[in-house]
Amino acid sequence: MTMTKRDLVVRVARQTNLKQSEVMDVIQLTLDTITEELAAGRSIEFRNFGVFEVMRRKERVGRNPNEPKTEVKIPERAVVKFKPGKEMRKLVLKLDPQDLQ
């Protein structure tokens, strides 16, 4: 099951006894700030959570799945990578792969 931003707002509002509209404003501002920093080419590090980095993906050749003989040039571009922190990695490793969709 996927958690949405709305689900996150409801959960945080319940745990903090804040209004959902206040929580939504804080979460949206946080996400906007993260996006702005990444768009400016800067990394973001949250201790015990993980690191968001902007990386350069080199130019490469791809193939059209409908016409595998046709090669398509994929230009160099910037991409966002996420490296989970130690705590997150440890908790995710405890998951049973058979329980995942």
TrEMBL record:
Signal peptide: none annotated. One of its GO terms (cellular component) is cytosol. Gene3D superfamilies: IHF-like DNA-binding proteins (4.10.520.10). The keyword Membrane does not apply. Keywords: DNA-binding. It comes from the Bacteria. Coiled coil: none annotated. InterPro entries: Hist_DNA-bd, IHF-like_DNA-bd_dom_sf. One of its GO terms (molecular function) is structural constituent of chromatin. Belongs to the bacterial histone-like protein family. This is Nucleoid DNA-binding protein. The lineage of its organism: Bacteria, Pseudomonadati, Lentisphaerota, Oligosphaeria, Oligosphaerales.
